[in-house]
Amino acid sequence: MKIATAAYPLDWFKDWAAFEAKQRAWVAEAAGAGADLLVFPEYGAMELASLGGDNVAGDVRGSIRAVSERVGEMNALHAGLAAEFGVHILGGSAPVEAEGRVVNRAHLFAPSGAVGHQDKQIMTRFERDDWGVVGGGPLRVFDTALGRIAILICYDCEFPLLARTLAEAGADILLVPSCTEALEGYWRVRIGAMARALECQCVTVMASLVGDQPRIYAVEENTGMGGIFGPPDAGFPPTGVLAEGAMDQPGWTYATIDRAAIAHVRADGHVLNMAHWTEQAARLPHIETIALP
After folding, report:
1. Of 52, 83, 165, 233, whose CA is between 20 and 30 Å from 14?
2. Which pTM value belongs to this model?
3. Catalytic entry in 120, 157, 200, 244
């Protein structure tokens, strides 16, 4: 399959039609390049706050509420685009008000019309302290026509047990939509994504917000690029980097992957990280402390 992952800039819209036109243009470009799976970044939906005006977009509660209220319309748009262009789409995640709390939720759309969602599991300090966003529903694996896909939203990919649980449940592609303000944030997520590809002998797909949008609360500055990573092993590049974009340059990054290569490296790679993972547990209780005065 061919994967397209976005370095996506936030815009300021005068009306819904402008947002719809932008989404259509991005999807049409990737589909026209032959992509089967399109990945938009974490908090890519925050530009919807602009439809409420400056006072709403510049306020923490106002921006969350404005975006959450538009998620249904955004989902209908993405579902329609997935069906029209015959692609799978991971839409930009959004803060969603659900049952008296706010979660960070990303929706995955299939061309068949099927849709599922994944909530972020572990919040960053900013999400906890400033936004009041909390961990949402359970981890999920999506059994699709493209294979078994799972989603680790940004910070989640820095926690190996989450990825391991998904890999053990059959996921061989992990989508990592991200939103990082500074370069160090980008590299934390990228290092996590590459480490998870190594440990789980799978493919990870990182999408990023890029550029400045000072009128929208919490996403005023964004740094990153798209990247698609695999294990540095047989059938994959020696660096593990299948494709990467250019820092802070908007656009799609593409890579063609073969699920058979994932199965092969797990079964007969130069190393077998996936199979040997369980050997750690037997060694953990036997720590010795040695004094070397």
Report:
1. 83
2. 0.97
3. 120
Q: In this structure, are strands 241-244 and 227-229 parallel, antiparallel, or unpaired?
A: antiparallel
The number of C-alpha atoms within 13 Å of 186 and in the hemisphere containing its C-beta is 22
2-283: CATH class? alpha beta
| pLDDT band, residue 122 (cuts 50/70/90) | very high
Residue 154 annotated among the catalytic residues of the structure:
yes
H or E element in which residue 72 lies? helix 60-85
Q: Of these residues, 2, 14, 127, 154, which one is catalytic?
A: 154
- Both structure tokens of 282: 């037997």
Domain boundaries, the chain: 2-283
DSSP 8-state symbol, 133: B
Active site residue 120: yes
Q: What is the mean pLDDT of residues 123-138?
A: 94
pLDDT of 27: 98
CB distance 219 to 20 below 8 Å: no
Calpha distance 73→59 (Å, rounded) = 22
Q: Is 29 a catalytic residue?
A: no
Token digits for 43? 């908090």
